[in-house]
Amino acid sequence: MADCCDDFTRSHLLRGSIARAGSGLPLTEPGMPMPAGTGLTRRSVLLRSAGLALAVYGAGRALTPEAFEAAVAEAAGEQKVLISVFMDGGLDSLSLLAPTGDPRYAVLRPSLALPAGAGSAFEADARLRWHPSAQGLKELWDDPGCGVAVAPAIGYDSPNQSHFTSRHFWEVGATDPLGTTGWLGRYLDRVGAPNVPIQGISLDGSLSPQLATGSVAVSAAYDIDDYRYAASGVWGTTETRMRATFGTLGTLASQDPITAQARQAQANSAGLASDLAGIGTGAPPAGANYPAAGSTFKTRLQGIARLLATVDGAGNSLPVRCITLNAAGGYDTHSNQAADLSSSLLTTTANLRAFWRDLELRGVADRVVISLWSEFGRRAAENGSGTDHGAAGAAFVIGKDVHQGLIGEFPGLAAGTGLDADGNLRATADFRGMYCALLEQWFQTDAAGIIPSAASFARPLLLS
Questions:
Q1: How far is CA 21 from CA 44, 207, 274, in A?
Q2: What is the pLDDT of residues 136-146, one digit of tens each?
Q3: Is residue 85 helix, strand or coil?
Q4: Are strands 368-373 and 393-399 parallel, antiparallel or unpaired?
Q5: Rounded to the nearest 5°, which phi and psi values hold at 386?
Q6: Residue 110 burial (CB count, 10 A)
Q7: Is this prediction's pTM over 0.85?
Q8: Rounded CA gap, 6 and 9, in Å?
């Protein structure tokens, strides 16, 4: 983790408690927005009293075990998948795509500016160069079998420089501090199934607010191989019997709607554990070339690749639609930025490059689009060894059929045109327009009703 500001630490600790199974919604500090919900509400009391590590959120009508499997089978097929990767802390886009060709760059960053010849040239804008540690992204850009859409200055009007608030806006898909469902959660509410939690998976052990739904089930796990329907002090044969017992108990009818909803969450959790248990193990295909160094990010990506390549007895893919996870490292670089950012970028981009190759070798890359984003960028002027919170930042959309090129443009570093009155990069693209394009061009779903005021946002051409 980078040397973070107090605001980040506070929001990071609070975010760590969001949607944690059995805990319900946390309280927020005065003046801070309520995070997107989990669908647990009063069920949390019942789940906590059962002593279980349930990580399924939202539940629909009651299902028998047979009906649960039938629902999964009905939803199965070649679903398009969006993988949302969050670079936590506010990525310095002016280092990732360094404007070495802008004369003000070296003036604003006398210590942190990349040398003019560092990294590789960015073909879409001669002023910019890839950070040397972002070679994985550069290789994806150069790969003829993959398209990369780059937003060098993406954000929203009247930017908020709080980690918590800005991240919340990106997660709910609206500049609404009171938003309680995520933009991907609302998409799943429209197209998903009531009780198929594998359709939306948050790989963080707690639910990403992006996936917070209003009606359908979604799930959270530390990684694909570590989803546990568990109780403290119970393991082995006893744990297996406990899973079966609680899975069955979860299907019992109840006249009390709260109890019925809690039981359905139990049944869904048992069903999800069964589905994930059927995912294969083993090393990635030869040629994926993941970095040798271990990381949680690498482990999670490798598990996703195996998940997406898994088919059932009828040859159908599991009905996964949306996956969220955090990138490697931390990006709140107020100090020691040169070393910390380089390490985080290297681990994140090298593993993303290997992951894409893994998907290609398994024959599932055509079903996947990756969104890589952060809550804001950093200030153009350095503070010594780091940079402070900014406004517009960088985002990337990666996929086989993604239209390679720019989303918006780099506005330059001139005061008043490229930079705002506070010295922050001005946005030339709105993140909600990117979301609308992903919904309509990738998922073939009208963004109206999912992204508030969707008609007001320009859509970039993402899918060619």
A1: 8, 8, 18
A2: 999 999 999 99
A3: strand
A4: antiparallel
A5: -150, -165
A6: 10
A7: yes
A8: 5
Q: Phi and psi (nearest 5°) for 34?
A: -70, 130
| 8 Å CB contact between 243 and 275 | no
Please state whether beta strands 200-203 and 322-326 pair in parallel, antiparallel, or not at all (unpaired): parallel
Residue 1 lies in a domain: no
Is 318's pLDDT higher than 80? yes
Between residues 402 and 9, which one has the greater pLDDT? 402
Tokens read off for 341: 């950012």
Distances 351 to 180, 300, 374 between C-alpha atoms, Å: 32, 10, 18
Per the domain annotation, does 294 fall within a domain?
Answer: yes
- Contact yes or no for 219/197 (Cβ under 8 A): yes
End-to-end CA distance of the chain: 37
Asked if residues 419 and 425 have their Cβ atoms less than 8 Å apart, the reply is yes
Per-position DSSP letters for 359-397, written without gaps between them: HHHHT-GGGEEEEEE-S--EEEEE-SSSEEE-S-EEEEE
Check if the beta carbon of residue 75 is closer than 8 Å to that of residue 196. yes
The DSSP secondary-structure symbol of 405 reads E
Q: For 425, phi and psi rounded to 5 degrees?
A: -65, 135
Show the beta-strand stretches assigned E in 157-264: 200-203, 218-221
CA dist 317 and 359 (Å) reads 14
**CA nearest neighbour of 174 among 163, 162, 186:** 186
Per-residue CA distances from 193 to 241, 251, 442 (Å): 28, 17, 19
Range of the domain at 105: 6-456
In angstroms, the CA 216 to CA 192 distance is: 7
Residue 353 is assigned to a structural domain of this protein:
yes
Number of domains in the chain: 1
Question: Would you put residue 143 in left (φ > 0), alpha (ψ -120 to 50) or beta?
Answer: beta
Amino acid at 85: V
Is the residue at 222 inside a domain? yes
Q: Is pLDDT at 11 greater than 80 in this prediction? A: no
Reduce the DSSP state of residue 23 to 3 states and report it: coil
Over the stretch 382-421, which tens digit does the pLDDT of each residue have?
999 999 999 999 999 999 999 999 999 999 999 999 999 9
Structure tokens at 399: 């996929």
Closest CA to 353 of 135, 203, 118: 135
